[in-house]
Amino acid sequence: MSRPSQRGITVTLCAITLAMFGGATAFLHRVHAERPQANLQEVLYIPSSKALKRMSLGYNGLLADIYWTRAVQYFGWKHKHKSMDYPLLYPLLDITTELDPHLIVAYRFGATFLAQDPPDGAGQPERAIELINKGIQANPDDWHLYYDLGFVYAMNMGNFKAAAEAFERGSKLTETHPFLRILAADMAQHGGELETSRLLWQTTYDSTDDPGIRSNAKHHLQALQVDETVPKLEELVRQFRENTGTQPTSFLQLVQAGLLRRIPIDPIGMPYKLLPDGTVQVQDPEAWSFIRRGLPPRDISNNPQKP
Amino acid sequence: MTNRIGAIAFNTFREAVRDRVLYNLILFALLMIGSSLLLGQITIAVQKQLLINLGLTAISIFGVLIAIFIGIGLVSKEIDKRTLYTVLTRPVARWEFIVGKYFGLVGTLIVNAGLMTIGFFVALLYLMHGLQPGDLSILAAVYFILLQFMIMTAIALLLSSFSTPIESAILSFAIFVVGSFSDDLRSFAESTKGFAHYVAMAFSYLIPNFSALNYIASVAHGDPIPGHMIALNTAYALLYAGAVICGASLIFQHRNMK
Predict the structure, then answer these.
(1) Looking at chain B, which residue has its C-alpha nearest residue A71?
(2) What distance in Å separates the CA atoms of residue A116 and residue A132, rounded to the nearest whole number?
(3) Sign (positive/negative) of CA torsion A146, A151, A156, A158?
(4) Do residues B161 and B72 touch, judged by C-beta distance below 8 A?
(5) Contact between chains at A34 and B240 (C-beta distance less than 8 A)
(6) A123, A89 in Cβ contact below 8 A?
(7) Contact B187 A73 (CB under 8 A)
(8) pLDDT digits over B229-246, tens only?
(9) What is the ipTM of this complex?
């Protein structure tokens, strides 16, 4: 029997390699499907930052970057699945900032992740304050951290006195943002008002180059607009009822009565809904993460009170 | 064909068991398993868990080191000693040489892992004064470690078929590390969009998934390994190792030996 040619062997080996690799991929896919819980999101490899520092052999910076990436992945994964619980978020951020105390992004983004209410964040504003204070200790000259501290105090904890103090401290730094002084004064005067929230989010929107932070600020500003518009519309409905003695069935009647110039639409371009009882709601509640007005009653609990 | 592959595999096995590196690594692994008994004395409530974690990790890591350090020399040593030319002048196809070498080293690793596992069970017996039916799942975890060895040996052989031993060692170890984090890579792929998603996803399937073959922590907690996972992972490891060995044969087939 003659030996197979070189070309024949090559073609056969190529075919077997591809077939086997294809088979391996298919089986791995099955393995993944069978063990979704094997996802390492919930695993903190080594919980002690001190042990990690020693094990990193001086490459703390790299390890901090790895842990930071892991924290972002963890948050992203949980956020995507609308999780109400983020147990590993603070430990991951704590380890990251312990490994590299000057990693400002970890404090800034980390505080946002921690402070926002679930499912948009971990709903742990106290932890966010703890993290930012740790950042301020390590980086006392960075005004961003004072801004974030004031922000969390005001927006997530409703502590306007502490927020004013944080902005005040930040405004006294050599290199700072002029808005901090204004914010400090505003907190002292108008803490808790919608306008204060708008000012804070507008400052965030204007003072960042990061598209993620900017987009988040934009969503909050739009939500504030809804929170402001819905009560105004409900007031107009009440006026119509008083004037005519009947409940309006659509906004068109309010336009015809001269109470509105046109059919009102929300910041994402959808018309508001007028309900038979005179309350006003957004068309698509699922599209809104941060509003507290204009939601069906059952959704109010998912969007807790904000200043 | 089977005889030729068997002869090469047997010679490879015989040569590997003469290697001093092998005994040093086995000794280190057994010392680590033994040291877990000492560590168990200074901890609370997790003595058995510690022994299983440390023992199986030692078997896994030292086995992988053996697979790498012996695997990378399988082809290059034959070329350096010029024994390869003698083999290839006989009616032995190049792919048969690679497959024979692979089986020889896998056989060596199975025997080594067997020795280390015996050492481990002796330590477990000493600590717990007996074995329980649940301890059988430890054997399943060892079996998964063997599947890891099969893949690592194939990778070491693939790399040594076209690069120097040092390069092969570094690359093999890097692949082992990346493969151990493949679940992280998959979750990263799932949380990204667009081009990055496809690249990360493709990469997570391309590299060997050692995370899926690591059940050390599970058995340390006494969790059983489901039978269908054993079947699926076996099929995956055999096919992946087969694909890599075919790739190695393909490269070796076209390698210029002059």
Answers:
(1) B188
(2) 14
(3) positive
(4) no
(5) no
(6) no
(7) yes
(8) 999 999 999 999 999 999
(9) 0.77
